[in-house]
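Let's practice the habit of predicting before peeking. Look at the sequence and jot down your guess about where helices and strands might fall. Then scroll down.
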Amino acid sequence: MSVMGGGAVIRRKIRAAEGRKPDATVMIFAENLTGQIAEALLLEPKFTLHPEFVDAEVLSFKAFLTSTPPKSLYCYSRDILFHLDNELTYTWIEMGLSGEAVLADRVSERYAPSAIDASLSRPFFECLMTSLQKDLPKRYRVAETEYEDAMSLERLVDNVHFTDDSTKVVVLKYGFSRHDEVVVGCCRIVLPLSIIEEVMLSAKPQVRDDAPNTGVWTKHMRGEVLDLPLKIIAVLERTKMSVDEIARLAPGKHIFLSAENLSKVTLCAETNKGVRELATGRLGLHNRAKAIKLDDRPKSRLTAIVAASRRSPAG
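Done guessing? Here is the structure:
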């Protein structure tokens, strides 16, 4: 029994390390951020690549570091970390020198950023930081005049000391492509889960009319949002009990419910902001199986994200 229990614990830890999809609001926040990244990068006229939101994941910080190359560029403040893969770093440097987006796939295996490359890439990281500022709560913002002192640059993964290995972080991944839609590299924006939850409370993200509405975006986000798991709870009745009453609960004890609520059920959705009421219904049997028949439609505030994800492309 002890071996099986230990195995279950190990499996849970492995699943936690592998990561999961964040809340749908985070996915929409990340997509909306694409335009802000593009706008911030207008300050770098030689860099003409276009950002596109690729994916988001919640995992431990150690798992994130393990997924990155031993030698690549990291830039982080107290609360935010940015990572450039070597393809994007190489392309950034080449475009700064020649103005052309040279594909780096043939050199990336042997290329590792030098100290000079890291220094030349600082403006890119500063643009990323600028893109986030208006969505961050004030206590997490960094004044532009303080970027140099607040943002540390590292080229070796072993030298990155951003947060504890066990801290849950949200990783937002963005690809950068040329006009011919060839992706030449990726960057990742990493925030502790506790901070992104606070950002979500203040930002209340919605799909904007000016958000990218390409076929790729629509297909990607429909799949991502509709595949997100949402835990549903059926509540027969809510009641209050004293601590003493709870302490005396035991098999055979009765908890009495009001007669009018014998079949009424409230469906609730478990979200990252707590348990929210979704709809009401009646408990009964259907085809010899216990089932709930809804009395009304789900609350609009919990279906707004799904509805937005189904929005058809403009034009």
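How did you do? The beta strands are 50-60, 71-76, 81-84, 152-156, 168-177, 183-192, 231-235, 264-271, 274-286, 289-294.
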